[in-house]
Amino acid sequence: MSFLGGLFGPVCEIDVLLNDAETRKTAELKTEDGKVDKNYLFYDGESVSGKVNLNVRQTGKRLEHQGIRIEFVGQIELFNDKSNTHEFVNLVKELALPGELTQNRSYDFEFIQVEKPYESYVGTNVRLRYFLKVTVVRRLSDLVKEYDLIVHQLATYPDVNNSIKMEVGIEDCLHIEFEYNKSKYHLKDVIVGKIYFLLVRIKIQHMELQLIKKEMTGIGPSTTTETDTVAKYEIMDGAPVKGESIPIRLFLAGYDLTATMRDVNKKFSVRYFLNLVLVDEEDRRYFKQQEVVLWRKAPEKIKKRNFHQRYESPEPRLTLTAEQQPEIRGVYSNSSSRSPDTSLFVPLSIKSDVGGDWAVGAELTQPLDKSELLKMLNKFYKRKEMQKIAADQGLDARLFHQAFISFRKYVLEISTLSADLHIILNDICCGAGHIDDLYPYFMRHAKQIFPMLDCMEDLRKISDLRVPANWYPDARAIQRKVIFHAGPTNSGKTHHAIQRYLAAKSGVYCGPLKLLAHEIFEKSNTAGVPCDLVTGEERTFVDAEGRQAEHVACTIEMCSVTTPYEVAVIDEIQMIRDISRGWAWTRALLGLCAEEIHVCGEPAAINFVTELMYTTGEEVEVRNYKRLTPLSILDRAVESLDNLRPGDCIVCFSKNDIYSISRQIEIRGLECAVIYGSLPPGTKLSQAKKFNDPEDPCKILVATDAIGMGLNLSIKRIIFNSLVKPNINEKGEKEMDTISTSQALQIAGRAGRFSSIFKEGEVTTMHRDDLPILKEILSRSVHAIEIAGLHPTAEQIEMFAYHLPDATLSNLIDIFVSLSQVDGMYFVCNIDDFKFLADMIQHIPLNLRSRYVFCTAPINKKQPFVCTSFLKFARQFSRDEPLTFDWVCRLVSWPLVPPKNIKDLVHLEAVHDVLDLYLWLSYRFMDMFPDANHVREIQQELDSIIQLGVRNITRLIRATETSAPPGTDTLSNQRRPGPSPVSPRRVRGAPKAQHSGVEAGQLDQSLGSRLVQEGLLTPHLLRQLQKEWSKEHRREEGGVKLLAATLNNKMKGKKRQK
């Protein structure tokens, strides 16, 4: 293979020859384009050795390089994200130090007993490959060649291979039993079985057995499943007779199959199912699926890993028979065979002073020659025997290389070596010792910079997350009854659960939002049931003396898993798969110590919750509900804001769209309420009350998807301004994507609520092109929930830190997740926000528990003022200086005045978040955050100021435009850092722009000017609006000054009182 070296054509040809190429078997593997590649076949644990030949193409020409290396790489590539590959194996051998090539050269290489944990695979959405990668490092462009290998995973016969017996039935119509001889088959096996017809009262026309392959990629909510029917076996053609039995015999050897692959490096799985299909004369289909495990049989002469290690857990997941547990959802990794991601191991720095051994070694022997030391150390590095022994001690090629670089630097740069190391080095230089004598000192140094090498098994045990149900012994000690209330939005499912909660002697409500917890808190106390409120930032006790009530309404993260209750309600259970917060629903569902657990949510979660409770030995009772009021999708889009009607809610997924649309609505002489996520809860409730009030002239609502939960709104028609929303993927990255069916149903369901004045709901789009897309989204079924989130606890991280005391918290979390083992029913939630805060305060001296608590604080990391305040909180805390009310007032520049423009409003929202952060921390560190009551008072005043700003939001937009310099986009300046949302589209159906009377130079990029350019305003109307606003501004100026003076007087009174 030829490569371009530099800019002047081919320089060098790289070739790789394996030592056993003549005798080694080859295997075939389909590529992603359907072709078949043939490469040499390797098995797990086999060594890979050979030669790298470098042929210089132009004789006499020098090829300068910065080093030559060969890597053995195991890599997973997701086809939908080819820019991001995942390496699970990377072994490196340095073939040559920096220098130059003038003639052809050959280099030997050997990777000894390489662990190849997975089988080579090419599927629909993913490829797992192994290859040798030779790199000639150059200044401008490296010369690289990749040499593909194929790996097969082998196993022996399983010790236990139970038969499968299942029944298919339709009451009084059909009863069939089918039996397969076993549940695990090798790739050349024969599936043998029988079908018994016990009752046949429907006319079956056709029956077949299918072998289905399911390829699942991704984790959490972003999981994608590709289904492929590999084989079909026609069982019968015609009507069966009662009492008849039909044999099944399906030969697997003729099909292109791979072994079952489960949770491969947390990226993908490949599973196989037997699907029995019956078709009646009316072409109705009945089917029953059963998972089977396929494995690759090893030849007797090859030493192989047994089936138990390869395909199953080291200990049984449940003490159930095969008949009791027909489907295996996940596979446990064997912790002793799993390789850690060594790229996360950060080497520690070694102190140069050695205490009392100063110059003793030099006095006993002689000073060391640095040049001789360098030659000796490089010779030690190239010793294959040393690399092999080090690998047995946990030093893979990457760590061995890093440890050697650190050891070499230590030996060559330190002023005085320890006496024993100095003497050994001197003996080797003088010929009195062997180069291998250096190994103990090298390993001693390696374990100093990589302390995790001595405690890897302990770390694996700590990060074992495979049986989270066992984390909650109080819940396991009682027999709980689980009742699933399933239904769409506005079906009354939560209402029925709350009625049982109110009737109980004691209960806890767990909701996803503070607003929902506050609603249940008020509803309970109004109904005469004393109830406390517990959120991250607030504790409200109805008892005057602070005694806890028997009922509590809380946000789900704050629920207690040790307090016994009669009834617990878990709302919005479908969020158990949320990439960031799913762990809280998992904890509540597995850990709440209540006699009855009432779960409310989408029907898509029924099967998963049932299976999850199966692992705890608890049954699930399902109660289904239908929507109480009709919801219809309109056949026409709104197209223009001129077509708005009372009770309309325009849903946007960008705050800038809200600003733009609310301004356009005001231009048309209409009032609108505004609700978006970063508004304080009080402001949201105020805007909702304004919109719901039949006496208020405000009849239009402009909102984000924040209305999807927690607010009771009297909406007649939901109008989607856009169907594209920014989402956070499993990597923590922001990306734009079409809303999911679940999201669309949640938002659309807010129209025509049962308790509102509108008894029918409608949904449509603003733009004509979006309407067919919305109909298609709403027609799809919601993806079934198949996975639940987990999160490392403070206790687990503390145990990690005990073994790795010098590692940063961010690095501890990375290593924990890398080593963590989860059942196939779970995933580890995204921890990027946690790591972001951990890195931010790493330089501040805090004990581990306090640092962990700070890093779990719910803050908006895209708000610079919030992040700066968080840093100041941590710094003040580390000095052991209480964060007093006066200190907070200085930090936020209290008292604050009503906002004059959008920028001021955004800053006030950030200040509200900072006060929320103070209150959140005050319940974790009461002594250090002592003035929570005073801070809550000014937060309520700030809420009033923000409410005033939101009520006058269109005036703020105008003020922003007026104050902006020419040529700037005033609204875009208000955006928070991060990927920009999709820009708002022009409202269709508006008149064309009229440019008469407006000079080009006067048209800056302000909102008003852009509306003129887009034809939404005429220049005459714009000038008229400016005049009217000037009069209104003079009128309101006196009111603003009066409010500011009032707030100042209140503040002075508080300080005097203190």
UniProtKB/TrEMBL annotation:
It is an enzyme of class 3 (hydrolase). It comes from the Eukaryota. Gene3D superfamilies: 1.10.1740.140, 1.20.272.40, 1.20.58.1080, 2.60.40.640, P-loop containing nucleotide triphosphate hydrolases. Residues 959-1004 are annotated as: Disordered. One of its GO terms (cellular component) is mitochondrial nucleoid. GO terms for biological process: intracellular protein transport. Its cofactor is Mn(2+); Mg(2+). This is ATP-dependent RNA helicase SUPV3L1, mitochondrial. It comes from Coregonus suidteri.
